[in-house]
Amino acid sequence: MTQTQIAVSLYEQDYLLWIEDIVNKLRNKDIEGLDFENLIEEIEDLGRSDKRELESRLRELLEHILKRNYVNMPDCYRGWVESIDKQRIALEDLLAESPSLKPYFSLVFDKAYANTLKIVRRSYPQCEFPDTWPFSRDIEAMLNADFWE
User: Fold this and answer.
1) 48-59: b (≥16 Cβ within 10 Å) or e
2) pLDDT reported for residue 136
3) I want to staple 68 with a disulfide (CB 3.0 to 4.6 A). Which of 80, 114, 146, 147 is the partner?
4) Could you give the angle at the alpha carbon of 46 between the alpha carbons of 43 and 51, nearest 5°?
5) For the chain, which residues make up each domain, given as ranges?
């Protein structure tokens, strides 16, 4: 059995143990023992994971900004603003850790808004939500502006 077959088997049997094994091999510069196929796949997934997180948090942010602005339920305002603050902090952290995601933010904005619009329109059919985002879509504004004031 080759080293790669052992590593692949370990990858499939015990993911955490596989990670620890890969980390030890990297620290020891054991290039021959690395499971390159799965290591490459995992590294690619890290980038996709960050993108998925950004999209998810952006949709949540848009949803609660829309609710805060267009749903007349004052008893819910505090909860929506709290969610807005949490998503903004998480997005700030994510963008600080991976600044190269900033162009992706702009790239997925329209799709995120369209998906969010479907959700809020179904949940609040009595409310009129704008077909296009009516506020600044600049990252700084999205992370700081209180669009409801």
Assistant:
1) eebbeebbebbb
2) 96
3) 80
4) 140
5) 52-144
Q: E strands along the chain, which residues?
A: none
Calculate what percentage of the chain has a pLDDT beyond 90.
75
Return mean pLDDT, the chain: 92
C-alpha to C-alpha distance for 96 and 101, rounded to whole angstroms? 9
- Helix (H/G/I), strand (E/B), else coil: 148: coil
Q: Quote the pLDDT of residue 78.
A: 97
* pLDDT given at position 6: 55
- Structure-token pair, residue 141: 């504004």
Give the burial class of 143: count Cβ atoms within 10 A of its Cβ; 0-12 exposed, 13-18 middle, 19 or more buried. Answer: middle
Closest to 142 in 3D by CA, of 64, 30, 67: 64
